[in-house]
Amino acid sequence: MLPRYGQLMKANNSTIHKYGYFWATLALFIISLTGHWLFAWHAYVDEQKIHNEEVRVGSYLIEVSRDTLENWQSEFLQLIWQVAGLALLWHVGSPQSKEGDERKEEKLDALLRMLKPAEAEKVIRELEEKYPKK
After folding, report:
1. Cβ distance 63 to 44 under 8 Å?
2. How much is the pTM?
3. Pick the residue with more confidence: 7 or 56?
4. How far apart (Å, rounded) are the C-alpha atoms in residues 95 and 36?
5. Which of 24, 56, 109, 129 has the largest count of CB atoms under 10 Å?
6. By CB neighbour count within 10 A (0-12 exposed, 13-18 middle, 19+ buried), where does 16 fall?
């Protein structure tokens, strides 16, 4: 008999399983950064040979660091705006925002009052006590 998903998750509560997404992301980050720096090294060496110049680790580190930070700046600023900025705009003006929830609550209260006028106010009060508005 196969274990249920919940039982499987309880059994695999190790750090690797708990933070699997983090570890996978970290591994991809390290692999891509290492690849970027290795290929940049080979391109730097080739460029130095073409210009008959000396290969210097210091100038390579400055060049590759500049390229890396330039790439991160453009990519991460764009990503931050897309994720954080759009999430904020979506929250403020979307049906899932607080304004949308209040509208839905008012509609449900109106339906309760139409369906069972005698009991509606009591039910609404009980629900407001159980789930107070923030």
Report:
1. yes
2. 0.49
3. 56
4. 43
5. 109
6. exposed
